[in-house]
Amino acid sequence: xxxxxxxxxxxxxxxxxxxxxxxxxxxxxxxxxxxxxxxxxxxxxxxxxxxxxxxxxxxxxxxxxxxxxxxxxxxxxxxxxxxxxxxxxxxxxxxxxxxxxxxxxxxxxxxxxxxxxxxxxxxxxxxxxxxxxxxxxxxxxxxxxxxxxxxxxxxxxxxxxxxxxxxxxxxxxxxxxxxxxxxxxxxxxxxxxxxxxxxxxxxxxxxxxxxxxxxxxxxxxxxxxxxxxxxxxxxxxxxxxxxxxxxxxxxxxxxxxxxxxxxxxxxxxxxxxxxxxxxxxxxxxxxxxxxxxxxxxxxxxxxxxxxxxxxxxxxxxxxxxxxxxxxxxxxxxxxxxxxxxxxxxxxxxxxxxxxxxxxxxxxxxxxxxxxxxxxxxxxxxxxxxxxxxxxxxxxxxxxxxxxxxxxxxxxxxxxxxxxxxxxxxxxxxxxxxxxxxxxxxxxxxxxxxxxxxxxxxxxxxxxxxxxxxxxxxxxxxxxxxxxxxxxxxxxxxxxxxxxxxxxxxxxxxxxxxxxxxxxxxxxxxxxxxxxxxxxxxxxxxxxxxxxxxxxxxxxxxxxxxxxxxxxxxxxxxxxxxxxxxxxxxxxxxxxxxxxxxxxxxxxxxxxxxxxxxxxxxxxxxxxxxxxxxxxxxxxxxxxxxxxxxxxxxxxxxxxxxxxxxxxxxxxxxxxx
Length: 672
Ligand code: ADP
Ligand code: ADP
Ligand code: MG
Fold this sequence. Notes:
By secondary structure, the protein is an alpha+beta fold. It has six domains: 4-103, Rossmann fold; 106-131 and 207-331, ATP-grasp fold, B domain (D-amino Acid Aminotransferase, Chain A, domain 1, 2-Layer Sandwich), CATH 3.30.470.20; 135-201, 2-Layer Sandwich (Dna Ligase, domain 1), CATH 3.30.1490.20; 333-446, D-amino Acid Aminotransferase, Chain A, domain 1 (2-Layer Sandwich); 465-591, 2-Layer Sandwich (Glycoprotein, Type 4 Pilin), CATH 3.30.700; 605-671, CATH 2.40.50.100. The protein is built from 18 helices and 38 strands. Bound molecules: adenosine-5'-diphosphate (ADP) (2 copies) and magnesium ion.
């Protein structure tokens, strides 16, 4: 077995690999850039080595610097994680040359499968179904036109070297082809240094279902079932689960067999994933193979009980697989949410800044914490910067059934406490609460169809309102008790309150336009709270000042985020952010006589949500625009981000020009 593993990566995946190395008793060596001096993966590793400046090209992608770090540390193996050098065959060859083990597949398998055109040809040769299209690079618009006409629209353009959802364009009509081809090639060149594009039929309303495989160096290959990754935005996965609610045992077996066949065809070893898209008629088509550990691997670990990182390490050390296909059993259900620093209310644009407050659910849970796993990679106080992927952590839950995994996820999302950068927690919670999601009726269009291209939390189910009202009753009672305790102590210093004070209070909870009169009685186990004719028991150990309320409502775990602001509580729960007031019945009567104050209107200015290059202004002065309409395009983090109108209006003045380098908050245009 290896003595020491160097992890050529950062963030959550570096931490994830270090955890398994520890369990196996292997020393871990972290590498880090100047921007990551205080990063969690550096804290966690047995050793750490600075490899260069913040920019990935000079650090995490800098093969020379990493080779030097390997030599310096004396590591005998390298785990590449995902992204960065994980699918770089040249890097693997450099390692082999220096006698260092690579914890991943052999370089020729990486080359064959890393190229989408070549991998598709290999699949076809081995009788694996693929999407109709061409298996050669598109050279010009003439060729693109001809092939697209032959297979029929809609079609999808893809970068052969692509990954991470980049370099993909769906074209629904002939008139869009020319522009799409241009942007696709330029994105492929800037992201992958390889402008080769191919095209295939765009499968309507597909599901993304992938098969995890493990292969040792002795020719033994098993598959570990599937993951469904249909919850995507712009071809990037957002939530994943295992198993898929769509697959029968027979289909799982068929897809698993095809995945194993493909792996065998390239003499694969290590962990890998064969991705398929599945149409509404349950036909499945191979799309690509990822020759690395995948972001969403934890859901497979939770349903199979196999530690994939451990297996990768053992395989690289020349060990035989200790199990065969018949030993692999799927137990229960697992879900994963990718927690991103992005702003769902502004078209999901990346958000950068300091994680002023950061607390993972597992450390603040009331009651049980099993069924919740956090693969985190940050500390409170860390900076989310523009150099790296804005993923903050992965939240994974499991249960015996899909419903149970969802229940745990909803609870855990409410427990997650992040301040300082915009994040998608509320959006993820809204997906979990969505009835179509709960019914398992998924497709890669799910987010676009259910939420559009931005997410404004608004609708609240009746039962959620009642739950918030009840919890706020208990919260307000605890706050009132503390206040009177302090007051009594200040008056005579006795413990009179604790012995004799029986709290029994009537309050009015104001939620939006509605008023809910409630009655709160302190009981032995907590609070008896009645709202109208319905009564509830709330148990909690919450104390004033804690931003997360955790407790049980009629025995069920419940949590929400509560922050006191001036005269109200700011509440976040299942994707909803709302201001709630709890006041006395007399104050409630008086309140109805006070005129309302209007909030200032910030929606007239269109500001740049991040630093980046203004690529284009898509509107003119005087033009009328509708909510959701594209106003401008900003390039940041190698992605083209659309800035959309957040209301209907007329463009009255444009302040920036395409080609401008924008600061955060810089005024782009004004609306009326
Ligand atoms: P898939 O590549 O099929 O979406 P994953 O979701 O596991 O599978 O991978 C997404 C991750 O892949 C991203 O978070 C990123 O780390 C990594 N990645 C792969 N290729 C690239 C790339 N060219 N640029 C940036 N990230 C990439
Ligand atoms: P990447 O390497 O970026 O992960 P993929 O080839 O895996 O690229 O495609 C990413 C996503 O794009 C898929 O998960 C799927 O949602 C969508 N996609 C890819 N090919 C097709 C297709 N032919 N028809 C419909 N959707 C597709
Ligand atoms: Mg993919």
